[in-house]
Every structure is written in structure tokens, then in C-alpha cells.
Amino acid sequence: MTHTLTPGARPSALDPILQRTLRAIRRRREHGFHFAGNFLAVSFDRVTVEDSMVSMKADCHAADGAIDGTALGVLADLALAAPVRAALPADTRLATVNMQLQLTGAPCLAPVTARSSFHGYVHGAAGRQAISRVTLHGAGREIGLGTATFMVLDLPAGTPIPFLTPVDPAQDDAPLLDPDTELNPGELAVYEHVRMALDDSQASGDFHERLWGYRAHARKGGATGTLANGPHIGNRVGHVQGGVLLGFAQTTAQAALGEDWSMSSVTATYVSPGEGRELKAEADIVHQGRTTAVTRVAITTDAGKRVLEVLATHSLRGARP
């Protein structure tokens, strides 16, 4: 099945996923944020130092009804950064240093909302490291809470300044971009990637896995994963977005333990930018008991440079209350 336009056809005749892709590309032009956040319809509903509200209006379900790992990572990362951005000039960049998330296991019902607040800087540190915390809810039920630390950096020249604006896909009636004539090479690469992921998932139904591009396989004592880099998962400076890295780590850890286990908490330390043509992940099972397990995941570049270290706990799935 293909999704290219026939001569004279209108973009509105495309598959809804491809229409959503074109809207995300347009929002990236207008708002300056990365494709992943725009595709997931992340909306900055209120941005203040004391009480920011960020929501995700696109579908974010995984197969088990919980929040998809990449959607969780992207939303948490953006929500934790929002109150810090409110305290800083617009032309600054935040690099995630660490993130901790505790999940309740409650089902994810869109829209997911995240309330976050800024808690000052790490005292005595040579660089400015900003601290924030977040709580996440789906349909009024708490699905997670967490904290993060961000390094405050100068924005590289030529990098777009983001506009933290509300998004409502239901009210987005702007004309769709024409993929045949109105996309630049980078935007066309994103569109074609989504189109191929959609085509490849027609039979298997695993669109989101193919969209992000994670490939993970179990091995003795753990799992190995690979992720091809590309503009669909990049942040504003071209590195793999921090929430996507977290989703890649979760997918690899899940492959190590199997579908009977779900992640209950994660501690992630960001070591260096996710760059290069391909990232690799190695997950090791540190402990696997009757009802709880622990995994350690290391993500590296194809040159072997360490990018992310993750320590996660998992719970054996049981009957939902």
C-alpha cells in the first residue's frame, strides 16, 4: 500500500497519519520544536515557573494500555523543561543531565497532562544545572511522577527559538502542506520515513515501533538494540531527542525481560549527545525475581561513545484492579 499523491489529488485525501505528519512539520516551522513533540501533539497549555501545564493530545497507548515509552519520555522531558524555560531567556538551550520517573501502572487515557515546577539550581556547581519536578495524569488518574536536572547552555547560532504555545489538533484547520511541492529535503525525509513506517505496519500493526525505528532482540542475560538516526527523532540541534533515547532504552529492556514485565521506574543519566548514523543499546538483566526485576541499559554511538545510562525496575504483570 502506498500513500503518494496522484496528480491533482489534495493532501486531505492522504491517510490520517500522513495528514498528522504534515501538520507536525508545519508546526515545527512555526514553533521551532522537534518533529517528535509536534507529531505527538504536545501542547504547552501554561508555562510558568511555579506551575506549568503541558499536555499530549495525540494517542499515546502501548499495546498493554499503559503509556507508550517514547510518548512518556518525550512528554516528561518537555514538561520538566517547561518551567525552567519560563525562568530563562528564550535564546537558551537546555541539555538533560538526568531524569527519574516513577510509574503507577495506571492505564493511559489521552489526553495525558503533566504539571511541573522549577526548583532552582544545583548549589556549588560550576555550571548552571536547573532542577524541576513533574506529575503526569491520564483522564484524571496519576500515571507517573518524576524529577530532572538540566544544564543551561547557549543556543547555537541559527537554531530556531521555540515558541511554547498551546496546540489543539481538533481546531487545526490550516491547509495541509503538499508533500510533492512544499517540503524541503529534511522535511521530505521525515514524511517519507513516516510513510514507509505506515506501509510496513499495515499487516503487523506495530506502527509506533516502526515510526521511531527501534530494533531490539533478546540475548542470553539481556538484549541488544539498534536505532538509525534521522530527522524524525532529532531535537533542534540535530541530536536524538532525550525522550526518544529513553524510549529506546525502555524498548531494549523490555526485549530482555519479555512482555510479562512492565517498567515501574527509571533513572536515566545523559552522558553525551545522541549523534552519528546509528545508536546501539545493550540491556543486561541485573536481577529477575518472582515479581520484580532490574535492568541496566547502556546506549552508545556507532563509534562506541557512551550516550545514556539507564537503571530501571520492572514489575511482573498481574490482573489489573
UniProtKB/TrEMBL annotation:
CDD domains: PaaI_thioesterase. It holds the Pfam family 4HBT_3. InterPro entries: HotDog_dom_sf, TesB_ACOT8-like_N. Residues 237-314 form the Acyl-CoA thioesterase-like N-terminal HotDog domain. This is Acyl-CoA thioesterase-like N-terminal HotDog domain-containing protein. It comes from Bordetella genomosp. 8. The lineage of its organism: Bacteria, Pseudomonadati, Pseudomonadota, Betaproteobacteria, Burkholderiales.
